[in-house]
Design brief:
Elements lengths: L8 E3 L2 E3 L6 E5 L6 E6 L3 H17 L6 H17 L1 H12 L12 H16 L3 E9 L2 E11 L2 E5 L5 H15 L2 E5 L5 H14 L6 E3 L7 H8 L5 E5 L2 H12 L4 E5 L4 E5 L5 H4 L17 E7 L3 H13 L19 H17 L2 E4 L17 E4 L6 H4 L6 E7 L2 H9 L3 E2 L2 E4 L3 H10 L6 E2 L14 E2 L2 E2 L4 H6 L2 E8 L3
Parallel strand pairs: 7-8, 7-10, 8-9, 10-11, 12-13, 12-18, 13-16, 15-16, 18-19
Antiparallel strand pairs: 1-2, 3-4, 5-6, 6-22, 11-21, 14-15, 17-20
Length: about 500
């Protein structure tokens, strides 16, 4: 039974149904039941959205009127914050966010980051003077102009939709770009709600367009391959990111890619194990459906059994499955398909010879309600096993022993990914020394957090290209023009 109104597309400033009135069911991960109907866009809808974004960029002053654009986005930010409760409730039902997640990436943190983007846009040096230089006997003044890239295709995943929808769309708009936002099929309504609120805030026609679709292939491929798109900003799997990059290469479209991870949590032998090991259960946040989640736990071989016992007990004490419990951090997996994928990896781990210390199945105490998998720990794991190398994207941790600091660094870096990681030590200097040797785009030292609106986020190696958030994330949506003028 639907509990949310049927969502609509946003095309050229108007909220509208998909061609032919097509819709599809939006399913709650908590119950497996329909919570609403989402507009199911056809290729014609996408064509109109891209055309609207192109016209808004090419034929209006959106890209050049910095003050006017910022004023509009200030209103948009106010409207978004005023609708915090609507966004939070929808995130609970649609993406499977547990209660405590709302205060972090599921809702409140991304809303709080809007102010940083607005401040950056207000203070940004759109035009700077390099002064006069002499070359080949001629003197010239030089200026640097920062200009928006153009029309941006923002393609977002289902795990933390509000975070990533806003982390792409808001900086792109603030930079002067126009946007076609395409969310994952599993979480259409959170993007559609942004479209509704954009209309309420008075965004100009065509500046932001929202296209929801039940398929990832047809609409997504058409969006990526359209010559009217200047930049593709994508968050999702490494496999899809590679395909997008290959398709974009034909016309040298700019790409930003935030992809997978298999991050290592390194616990050194001088750490307080009683305090540190239980914090590893933070990887159960959003049922482990986070690209930067630390799912490889690296502990010294001399304290391996101690660490395994502590983490087993901690995971077995994790509470989950209660929609209304205010402190729970673990909800369901997004879909039955994702649950089966996670369960298949658990079977792979068993077949590889890893020992299942706890979890590994579907919880019986929830009476088959929702797409849950038990908090799971594998021990006796080597870094060459698939469960240690491939992104599972579920509540599954693997514990790997190491011999000394150099071995811990080697294991942590022995991965196709390089998105995040962490280290804990009784010595800050020792921990910082480890951090400098890890090839990853983000890293936490002794419990410190890098996650904030002014902090760039992204990865090394197959974890992506470019950065989201922070000044670097804002500048992803800008081109640089160098201009020579007569000396003043």
């Amino acid at each position: 039974m639907s509990i949310f109104p049927q969502s609509r597309l946003l095309i050229d400033g108007e909220l509208c149904a998909a061609q032919g009135g097509a819709t599809y069911a939006d399913i709650s991960p908590w119950t497996g039941e329909e919570i609403g109907r989402a507009a199911d866009a056809a290729p014609g809808d996408l064509d109109r959205a891209i055309g609207a974004a192109r016209r808004a960029f090419d034929e209006t002053n959106w890209s050049t009127d910095h003050a006017g654009r910022i004023a509009v986005l200030e209103r948009f930010a106010q409207v978004l914050k005023a609708n915090r409760d609507r966004l939070a409730l929808l995130a609970r039902h649609e993406s499977g966010a547990a209660s405590a997640e709302i205060y972090v990436a599921a809702c409140d943190a991304p809303l709080g980051m809007l102010d940083y983007v607005l401040k950056t846009a207000r203070e940004y040096a759109w035009d700077r003077d390099l002064g006069v230089a002499e070359m080949l006997g001629s003197r010239s003044g030089r200026r640097i102009w920062k200009e928006p890239v153009g029309v941006v295709a923002a393609i977002t995943p289902w795990n933390v939709p509000t975070q990533i929808n806003l982390a792409k769309s808001f900086p792109a708009l603030a930079a002067g770009c126009t946007v076609v936002l395409k969310p994952a099929p599993d979480t259409p309504m959170l993007a559609a709600l942004l479209g509704e609120l954009a209309v309420e805030a008075g965004l100009p026609k065509g500046v932001l367009n929202v296209i929801t679709s039940s398929t990832t292939a047809e609409i997504g491929e058409a969006l990526v391959n359209d010559s009217r798109i200047d930049m593709i900003s994508f968050t999702g799997s490494t496999a899809v990111g590679k395909r997008i990059m290959a398709n974009a290469a034909d016309r040298l479209a700019r790409v930003f890619l935030e992809l997978g991870g298999k991050s290592a949590n390194i616990i050194l032998d001088d750490a307080d194990f009683a305090a540190t090991i239980p914090r590893c259960a933070g990887a159960m946040f959003h049922a482990g459906q986070g690209c930067a989640t630390n799912t490889r736990i690296l502990v010294p071989r001399t304290r391996y059994e101690e660490a395994a016992g502590l983490l087993k007990a901690t995971l077995e004490a994790v509470e989950y499955g209660d929609f209304d419990a205010p402190r729970q951090i673990m909800g369901p997996l997004i879909s039955e398909r994702q649950r089966q994928r996670v369960l298949s990896y658990i079977e792979i781990g068993k077949a590889e010879g890893a020992r299942l210390a706890t979890g590994g199945g579907v919880p019986t105490h929830l009476n088959e309600k929702g797409f849950f998998v038990e908090p799971t720990l594998f021990v006796d794991v080597t870094n060459q096993m698939r469960i240690a190398r491939e992104e599972i994207f579920g509540p599954v941790l693997v514990m790997i022993p190491y011999e000394d600091d150099a071995d811990a660094v080697r294991i942590a870096n022995d991965s196709p990914y390089g998105l995040s990681g962490s280290v804990t030590s009784g010595s800050l200097d020792r921990a910082l020394g480890i951090a400098r040797r890890i090839r990853s785009g983000t890293f936490a030292v002794n419990g410190g957090s890098y996650y904030a609106g002014d902090a760039p986020f992204g990865g090394y190696k197959q974890s992506g290209i470019g950065r989201e958030m922070g000044l670097e994330g804002f500048e992803e949506y800008l081109e640089t023009k160098t201009v020579g003028v007569p000396p003043g």
